[in-house]
Amino acid sequence: MSSEDNFLEVSDLQEGIARVVSIENGQVWLEPEQKGSCGSCSSSGSCGSKGIGTVANRLEARRFPIPNEDGLVLGDRVIVGVPGNALVKAALTAYGMPILTMLTGGIFVSGYGDVPTLVGMVFGLVFGLFLARILARRLAAQGALTPQFLRRV
Amino acid sequence: MQEYVLLMISAALVNNVILARFLGLCSFMGVTTRVDTAVGMGLAATFVITVSSMVDWAVEAFLLQPFGLGYLRTVTFILVIAAATQFTEMTVRKVSPPLFQMLGIYLPLITTNCAVLGVALLLVEGRMSFLTSTLFAFFSSVGYSLVMVIFAGLRERLALAETPLLFSGPPIGFITASLLALAFMGFSGMSH
User: Fold this and answer.
1) B7 Cβ under 8 Å from any chain A Cβ
2) Model confidence over A44-91: pLDDT tens digits?
């Protein structure tokens, strides 16, 4: 593979910073570093976005493993990359598909009244979530949702 | 069919949630630094707004109106929206943990998003059928997502443009948002 091909491949990735929080069985668990407007304004001390079940817990819930092929140790800060369109694919799979099937289910039975329409939408939503699960498994198998280790900070 | 097309244009463009009704401005300014995050936020908000509006219509039709509990509407709807957001989070986490890792960060931002409550209260005020209410909520959130993506594209370009120091960052973003609102005012003529 030429260096130009490699450059194009790397530049298609969106980068983010993560920290090694644990090492188990040849895998390192990384936790993304918080960035963005949350908690960074002068009112962060009284902001409802901090506290139980919010930022800290959600970051913990977003921990992900990668193979430890580069000798990472606890506390290392690394740059990881996610395929450029991964977020759009993930959002369309998780939210777009169920919404479309839900509305389709409702429109099909809309002629029978409000309650059947509600029931039709619920069934459509459940079906859409089932389809989303299948699509998500395919995306995960293709590696479209998995961050890749790029380099140390 | 024509009724639904008019509903789509009215909800998404003429009475746009962000630029005409000025709801959801915190997420509009906070999550539009990149187009892909705006898409993620827009789709997540679309899902939550549509699902919570469905439940809000049912609560209004079968609980609040029959028993004369209209004074509890705001509190009840806030509770429903919080529950819908939690339901969405649990569902995405169950459907696919990798998806949740990628998308879960947007959901807390939707719980406190006034656009969700605003759309629910508007559809109750409109006294529409269940399907029309749901479609109104869906198209309103499509308009929300559309404006988020447009503004994110503009902000990405602004980040690369030469801006006077005093205007760089949020100030030029707000000026751009106001110009976008002026542009969307052109759609108001379509309602006549």
Assistant:
1) no
2) 555 544 444 455 555 555 677 788 877 888 888 888 887 767 778 888
- pLDDT higher than threshold 80 for residue B190: no
Contact call for A87 and B37, based on CB within 8 A = yes
Does residue A137 carry a pLDDT above 70? Answer: yes
Residues of chain B neighbouring A64 (CB-CB closer than 8 A): 98, 101
Interface pTM, i.e. ipTM = 0.82
**What pTM, to 2 d.p., does this model score?**
0.81
Helix B130-160 and helix A114-141, axial crossing angle in degrees, nearest 10: 40
The alpha carbon of residue A68 is apart from the nearest alpha carbon of chain B, in Å, by 19
CB-based contacts of B26, cutoff 8 Å, min separation 6? B109, B112, B113
Query: pLDDT digit string (tens) for A118-131?
Result: 999 999 999 999 99
Which residues on chain B are in Cβ contact (under 8 Å) with A63? 101
Helix, strand or coil, per DSSP, at residue B164: coil
- Please state the domain extents for chain B: 2-184
What integer pLDDT is reported at residue A148 of this predicted model?
A: 79
Nearest to B134 among A49, A58, A121 (CB): A121
Indicate the pLDDT class of residue B66, thresholds 50, 70 and 90. Answer: very high
Residues 6+ apart with CB under 8 A from B73: B60, B64, B121, B124
> Is B185's Cβ below 8 Å from some Cβ in A?
no
CA distances from A61 to A55, A86, B18, B102, B104 (A): 10, 19, 31, 10, 9
- Domain residue ranges of chain A, discontinuous segments joined by +: 3-152
- Report the DSSP pairing between strands A27-32 and A13-24: antiparallel
The beta-carbon neighbor of A48 closest among B31, B51, B112 is B112
